[in-house]
Specification:
mainly alpha, Arc Repressor Mutant, subunit A, 9 helices
Length: 211
């Protein structure tokens, strides 16, 4: 059987492929050693490219981190929207949300890095603007998810959705900083408990079912 001929990538497709490899490399290095230790040289080398290839796609390490952070926040919102849209009972939905927050599919490691980056952005007024814009977009998306959640549950939120979103984001950031030395599963549990306390809802399994 003749071997299939691979279609030659266009210049734009090659550029996109290079960009994706750099993003994966940066995410791997950020998660392994933190933001400071992941230099542009290391990101490029780990992806199999020169530093010139990096700067052909990203202006700086801050920019590639922002791209990853935006992707992480989009995944988080998309996952929550998918859960809220599913046909299930209120109890099942809340348990599903809790499992998502504490499960292996959550972007918990990247959330920790986001806190580290927030501290760095606070020292760079120019870059802080881009970071603040990203957080505003995330906040607006979170407000939409919360409004859909309470409608689906048939419950009245304890405060306006915009206030709940602000409190949630601030609380999670604070917990990630305060419990930085605790095991990941402990920090995930604290964040999950805080989320449901702030939202004024319970995600405990119905009686008679295993916890």
């Amino acid at each position: 059987m003749p071997r299939a001929i691979r279609r030659r990538l266009s210049r734009e497709e090659k550029r996109q492929e290079t960009k994706e490899k750099l993003l994966r490399s940066a995410e791997q290095l950020f998660n392994q050693g933190g933001y400071e230790k992941a230099s542009v040289d290391l990101i490029a080398e780990n992806a199999g490219f020169s530093k010139g290839a990096f700067y052909s796609n990203f202006e700086s390490k801050e920019e590639i981190f922002l791209a990853l952070l935006e992707s992480s926040k989009r995944r988080n919102i998309a996952a929550l929207e998918s859960l809220v849209a599913q046909e299930m009972s209120a109890e099942q939905m809340l348990v599903a949300i809790r499992n998502h927050q504490s499960g292996p599919e959550s972007d918990f490691d990247f959330a920790q890095l986001a806190v580290e980056f927030a501290l760095q952005a606070s020292r760079d007024p120019t870059f802080a603007k881009a970071y603040a814009r990203l957080n505003r977009n995330f906040r607006d998306s979170m407000i939409g998810v919360l409004e859909k959640l309470y409608t689906k549950l048939g419950r009245v939120p304890p405060a306006p959705a915009k206030d709940l979103a602000d409190i949630l984001i601030a609380t999670i950031t604070g917990l990630l900083l305060q419990a930085s030395d605790a095991p990941a599963n402990v920090r995930k549990r604290l964040i999950s408990e805080a989320t449901f306390l702030i939202l004024g809802i319970s995600a405990q399994p119905p009686e008679g079912k295993p916890k």
